[in-house]
Amino acid sequence: MMTLVVKRFAFGCIAVAAVLLAAASAHAQPVRIGSLGLSGPLLPLWIAQDKGLFAKQGLATELITFQGGTPTVQALLSGGIAFAATSTDTGANARLRGGDVVGIAEWVNSFPYMLVTSKDIDRGDKLKGKKIAISRFGGAAHYAARLSLGKLGLDAEKDVQMLQIGDESVRLTALRQRFVDATVLTPPTNLTARNLGFNVLVSLIDAGVKYSFDTVFTSRDYATRNRDTVLRFLRGFLSGVAYMKKNSADSIETLKKWTRSTDRAALEETYRIFGGIIPAKPYGTDEGWRNLLEVLSAADPKARQLETKDMFDYTYLTEIDKSGFIDALYK
Q1: pLDDT at residue 76 above 90?
Q2: CATH superfamily of 16-110+210-329
């Protein structure tokens, strides 16, 4: 008789828990989040979604992947999404055109480029007179190439020939076919190049170069009207960052699922790099902002007028930080 009572009590507890869970889900606030592509830096966002870290903050989130930064920001401006995880330059260009965008967390503030050279070029001086592939003049890859050459004591304007080739896959192909002698690549394409026997002469990550690379944007109007939602979103995202840093094996599996990659070495390299450079407290830096403005102003001189106060509002992140929430994630 006692066993039957215990079983009934246990069943009743489970039933109550299920009802409470369903009620909580029913009251969770729907939030749509847009992201640029399926690249490694988005790992904290994917973890927060898959591990229920947004749900823990009372949000019923939907992740939408866009092919390109421009459509991601356009969806934000139209109200189709509440938050956009995308390249900082895309948000800055939208702001230059009067778009209501504001950054609330700059979660990649390093410059994840590496200067990769042909097998016979193992020193900087051997690059003199050679061809270097970039995506386009005035773009991030162009700036990365210029910075890398500077680290080697070379003048980008006089010592080498820059060629506009296209995206990373095209640039790597050009390097393999010896159409060019060097290019700049980001993870995990750099690993592919290294496995093919090419040399990595400069890593801007190892050099500690700061750059406003990836940012979570929302609109000032949305943030003003939905301050609590912004705070809950950030707590979920910050929890994703902490989970990534503390759980390597599980994080790599999440990366594998979202990128649909089966290349274990590339997955591990991507995790190693971005797991290391994504900060626990994703504030931007003055150096990173100045470096981004160098790139933006090459295409649009008006970009020099942009100030960090125009682009970022860290009051939400600061409030969470001062509460001790972030520090507690790492205890």
Answers
A1: yes
A2: Periplasmic binding protein-like II (3.40.190.10)
